[in-house]
Specification:
alpha/beta; pyruvate-formate lyase- activating enzyme; 3-stranded antiparallel sheet; Arc Repressor Mutant, subunit A; globular
Length: 393
């Protein structure tokens, strides 16, 4: 119960060729030929300062995820240098999963073999759709053929552990169109598929000027039929939007959903660290804008030894901790046990007993199993937000 949770490392690389109209991530259109080279040095210094602050707590890093933005705008030589610098400051597990997010329109031919030599052993490829009109509506800069070619190059480079991001509920999309996208993705033999519904997030172009989207019943039908198609092809759903072949779940994301710990470095990166449970589980956040982030790292490096790393730190309030845990754990098909809850939060499961009972009465939770594992019911998976509100403080 007192063992520290596994530790991942998230590295945010905030530049894209162009901002997509549905995207609410911290990403910025690149205005130069290449991203700022100083950013790589800042990332290494940021990690060093986090390590010196005691964030590792004796742990090695089990997974690294380079997210964005479009990290593949940085070249293989950049990642080789960056991973070498990261290893100089923190121990990586011998079998660490090291993922690079890449967009098919922002990867040079033959680059995946070089990324593999640099230390990348998993890639998440932003396909989104295999329909040219849908890609244009989403503001994507690549074609379906570029996605197919990128997948072929991943196989040729020996990076067979790759994910395809795929969206459904797209502007004017039909059920047949959603199924065609899934079939096209399966044909490329990825190890993992992320299949998620397009949502109109506040602050995005699509939120301000909504496109015509399929109605709720149509998108639900899309989800169910696509799930069946993926299951037939050997992709087991293990999280709301995640499907994998046996033994190839995304270990980094699974750690998030199991309420493990992760360091976040880079502009706008978030982290979660269990300094002491339950009263010192920390949320960390780095300055959002790249220029502000670079300035904050420079100031932190110049500060006296023992000063705080760049960014902010705040403890999760005790009354909010159950909801924070369940916001993640209830996304998992396998659910959670009382022991899981207590180990990761430091709280007894009694604090959520009444809410669990209410959720079960409403049919949003399946009856507990013999080993006391709690899982969402089929109804709870469909109306997950309704289930989660029962646990709000």
């Amino acid at each position: 119960m007192n063992a520290a949770p596994p530790l991942g490392l998230y590295v945010h690389m905030p530049w894209c060729v162009r901002k997509c109209p549905y995207c609410d991530f911290n990403s910025h259109a690149l205005k130069a030929a290449r991203p700022d080279a100083r950013y790589l040095d800042a990332l290494a210094e940021d990690l060093r300062l986090e390590v010196e602050s005691g964030a590792l707590d004796g742990r090695s890093i089990a997974s690294v995820f380079f997210g964005g933005g479009t990290p593949s705008l940085f070249g293989p030589e950049d990642f080789s240098r960056l991973l070498e610098a990261l290893r100089a400051h923190a121990p990586l597990a011998a079998d660490a999963e090291i993922t690079l997010e890449a967009n098919p329109g922002a990867v040079e031919r033959g680059a995946f073999a070089a990324y593999r030599r640099a230390g990348i052993n998993r890639v998440s490829l932003g396909a989104q759709s295999f329909d040219a009109k849908a890609l244009a509506a989403l503001g994507r800069i690549h074609s379906p053929e570029e996605t197919r070619r990128a997948a072929e190059e991943l196989h040729a480079a020996g990076i067979t552990n790759f994910n395809l991001d795929l969206m459904y509920g797209l502007p004017d999309q039909t059920r047949d169109g959603a199924l065609a996208d899934v079939r096209a993705a399966i044909a490329l033999a990825p190890a993992h598929l992320s299949h998620y519904q397009l949502t109109l997030e506040p602050g995005t172009v699509f939120h301000a000027r909504p496109p015509a989207l399929p109605d709720e019943e149509t998108t639900w039908s899309m989800q169910l039929e696509c799930q069946s198609l993926l299951a037939e092809a050997g992709y087991a759903q293990y999280e709301v939007s995640a499907y994998s072949r046996p033994g190839q779940r995304c270990r980094h994301n699974l750690n998030y959903w199991q309420f493990g710990d992760y360091l976040g470095i880079g502009a706008g990166a978030h982290g979660k660290l269990s300094a002491r449970r339950p009263d010192r589980i920390l949320r960390t956040e780095k300055p959002r804008m790249p220029t502000a982030y670079l300035g904050a790292v420079t100031e932190a490096v110049a500060a006296p030894p023992g000063s705080a790393p760049p960014g902010t730190r705040s403890a999760i309030a005790l009354e909010e901790l159950p909801f924070e845990y369940l916001l993640n754990a209830l996304r998992l098909n396998e659910g959670f046990s009382a022991g899981d809850f207590q180990a990761r939060t430091g709280l007894p499961v009694d604090v959520i007993a009444a809410a669990l009972a209410r959720a079960e009465r409403r049919g949003l939770l399946a009856p507990p199993t013999a080993d006391q594992v709690t899982r969402p019911s089929d109804l709870g998976r469909r109306f997950l937000n309704d289930l989660l509100t029962l646990f709000l403080p």
